[in-house]
Design goal:
- This protein has a six-stranded parallel beta sheet, sandwiched between helices.
- The chain is globular, with a radius of gyration of 26 Å.
- The model is unreliable at 33-49 (pLDDT under 50).
- β2, α4 (97-109) and β3 form a beta-alpha-beta unit.
- The termini are far apart.
- It contains eight helices and six strands.
- It has 204 residues and is of the alpha/beta class.
């Protein structure tokens, strides 16, 4: 009698467990279907973004006239176009909050945000040490930097570091002066920086 009761209890428990498994399976399938129906476009965009290499660039020396915040439109557009090939973050150093608004307006006016460069990925800092901290937190696949102090602060703390220095066209054309002993690459324009980054731009 006890064995019959035990067998009956085991069967009942088995039925309950099977029912629970079936219910959970059906419920998860419905959630997946509803999520795809309502958020499918967002998921696809997120997956596309995840596949792109994250790259950050200190842009002051590339998109502004030397010693000013006067935008060099051609160079700004070159970097903006780069965002179609990678998850691009631009770091810009400013002295005050007013500069932030002016720079964003200038970038918008030159259609820098018409493509895949996102406004929230233009990151501002007041100091070089602040930028170094932000880069370490961001952890891009490669960061492109022209400031020696920042480069030293993040070297070994991120996956890849590319150092550059803007120079005159004559020096840039001389092969013997193209790269320094510490790996700093002399560039003339934003297009030269894109050439440095190109090997890192891969879709996974």
């Amino acid at each position: 009698m006890l064995e019959d009761n035990r067998d009956s209890m085991v069967v009942s428990i088995g039925i309950v467990l099977l029912s629970l498994v079936f219910f959970l399976y059906w419920h998860l399938r419905e959630l997946r279907r509803l999520r795809h129906h309502h958020y499918g476009h967002y998921d696809e965009e997120s997956e596309s973004t995840k596949r792109k290499t994250s790259i950050s660039i200190f842009a002051n020396d590339l998109i502004f006239c030397k010693g000013t915040l006067d935008l060099q439109v051609d160079n700004a557009r070159v970097l903006a176009d780069l965002a179609s090939k990678c998850s691009l973050y631009l770091f810009i150093q400013v002295e005050n909050e007013d500069d932030v608004e002016v720079i964003l307006q200038e970038l918008e006016q030159c259609d820098a945000f018409k493509g895949e460069l996102k406004k929230h990925r233009v990151l501002f800092s007041h100091t070089s040490s602040g930028r170094a901290s932000m880069v370490r937190q961001l952890q891009p696949m490669v960061h492109v930097e022209s400031n020696v102090t920042v480069a030293n602060a993040i070297d070994g703390r991120i996956a890849n570091l590319a150092k550059f220095k803007v120079t005159e066209k004559t020096a840039h054309d001389d092969p013997d002066k193209a790269v320094t002993e510490d790996g700093t690459v002399f560039v003339f324009s934003a297009e030269d920086v894109v050439d440095i980054i190109q090997p890192f731009i891969v879709l996974t």
